[in-house]
Design goal:
- The protein has 403 residues and is an alpha+beta fold.
- It has two domains: 183 residues, GAF domain (Beta-Lactamase, 2-Layer Sandwich), CATH 3.30.450.40; 212 residues, 2-Layer Sandwich (Alpha-Beta Plaits), CATH 3.30.70.1230.
- Helix content is 39%, strand content 28%.
- It has 13 helices and 16 strands.
- The strands form three sheets. Strands 7, 8, 9, 12, 13, 14, 15 and 16 form an eight-stranded mixed sheet that branches. It has a six-stranded antiparallel sheet with strand order 3-2-1-6-5-4, with helices on both faces.
- Strand 8 and strand 9 form a beta hairpin.
- The radius of gyration is 28 Å and the shape is elongated.
- InterPro entries: A/G_cyclase (IPR001054), Adenylyl/Guanylyl_Cyclase_3/4 (IPR050697), Nucleotide_cyclase (IPR029787).
- This is Adenylate/guanylate cyclase domain-containing protein.
- Pfam families: Guanylate_cyc (PF00211).
Length: 403
């Protein structure tokens, strides 16, 4: 062991590991410094629980000479055999370390040890990460050295753990904050909030394609079904849209009951407008197909089928912090959003799934059907409305009306 390098590593961690700001670089540099100090590491794993609607936790795996791998564990996976048989379970629930020498006789009923033996590892130790809030997370350390870890090397690992744990906690808190903001306000808004744009009234103007949709017949559905069933339906319904929106570069800003507001940013010079509109239409068609396949059958109820309406428009939106007192919301407002909301109502009256303003239809390379011109409440000029030509037209819905 090189005590000088080991002490330098502990000092570097205590000083904030400022030469490695990103999590992947921090993990790699920490492990490289440990190897340089005389700890013959081959594989290092850090396993942390996190706050996320679909993930129970994350894992970060470093291997000597390889890239850092980042994975996740879904809610419920901690009830599976792989986790129940893992040494990490004891670390998480009892906060104690676990040691296994790995050889030909290593118990084969522990999947991780079987995998590690196949990789040529000879020794394994799992150590708890005791966080400042009382929670315990876990780490694992392996070596390929023929003699395994020496007592001195294990003592060195234990010496490093307090400083390492504090830094892991900092990275975990950062990732949790960023992840929660992504989940609740969207990636674009989350980046701005973390960058300090948190003052009420702090807004900017953005050119965007606006996506505004809602579920047809939701009020009647809510009246007939138990609230928990309605929640299940809404989650399944939004699953039909959100992945498609995100895959095409959109950002979901808000869920409003059964309504969904999303934006697709457009370059200031609008040079990419046709491309953005094309991606929006891909998301719209994918969402339409997914909703058409959505089924739900509750107790003593006939199978439910669902339809939704979607309005697409292009315009400038005011994007930022709006609210009262100390409660603010990161959202977008403006005449363009209001027009999209009116268009969505027209879609319902015309029994159409997807409708678009002339601004969107003119900018997109799609086959549109002219549905007529409609006066819009609150707007001085009537708006010509278009529907996708592959949907059946509803002639009775063409009559001029105010919505």
């Amino acid at each position: 062991m090189n005590d000088t390098q080991l002490n330098d590593l502990i000092t570097w961690l205590a000083d904030g590991a400022r030469s490695a700001v990103r999590t992947d670089r921090f993990m790699a540099e920490t492990c490289e410094r440990m190897v340089a100090s005389g700890i013959p590491l081959f594989r290092v794993g850090v396993f942390v629980r996190t706050l996320h609607p679909s993930m129970l936790g994350r894992n970060f795996i470093w291997r000597a000479g390889g890239e850092l791998q980042i994975g996740s564990m879904a809610h419920g996976e901690d009830e599976g055999d792989e986790f129940l048989l893992s040494p990490l379970r004891q670390v998480f629930y009892h906060g104690t370390e676990v040691r296994h020498r790995i050889n030909a006789d290593t118990a084969s009923n522990i999947p991780i040890l079987t995998d590690l033996r196949a990789e040529g590892n000879t020794d394994y130790i799992a150590l708890p990460l005791h966080m400042s809030d009382g929670e315990t997370h876990a780490s694992s350390w392996t070596t390929r050295h023929p003699d395994g870890f020496s007592d001195g090397q294990l003592d060195a690992l234990r010496r490093i753990m307090p400083s390492l744990t504090r830094m892991i906690e900092i990275h975990l808190l950062r990732r949790t904050a960023s992840g929660l903001l992504d989940n609740y306000v969207g990636a674009r808004a989350g980046e701005r909030i973390l960058a300090g744009q948190i003052r009420r009234g702090h807004t900017e103007t953005m050119q965007a394609v606006i996506w505004l949709s809602d579920l047809r017949g939701f009020t009647a559905l809510s009246d007939r079904l138990q609230p928990e069933h309605v929640v299940d339906i809404l989650n399944s319904y939004f699953d039909c849209q959100v992945p498609a929106i995100l895959a095409q570069g959109g950002e979901v800003l808000k869920f409003m009951g059964d309504g969904l507001l999303a934006v697709f940013p457009v370059a200031e010079d609008e040079g990419d407008l046709t491309s953005v509109c094309g991606r929006v239409l891909e998301a719209a068609r994918a969402s339409r197909a997914a909703v058409a396949q959505l089924r739900w059958a509750g107790t003593n109820l006939a199978e439910e089928q669902f339809r939704f309406g979607l309005a697409l428009h292009v315009g400038k939106v005011l994007y930022g912090n709006i609210g009262g007192g100390d409660r603010v919301d990161f959202t977008c407002i403006g005449p363009a959003v209001n027009l999209a909301a009116r268009l969505e109502k027209i879609a319902g009256k015309l029994s159409r799934t997807v409708v678009a303003s002339s601004a969107f239809a003119d900018a997109s390379a799609a086959d549109w059907a002219d549905l007529g011109e409609f006066p819009i409440a609150g707007f001085a000029k009537a708006e010509r409305v278009y529907g996708l030509a592959d949907e059946d037209l509803n002639p009775a819905g063409r009559a001029s009306r105010t919505v």
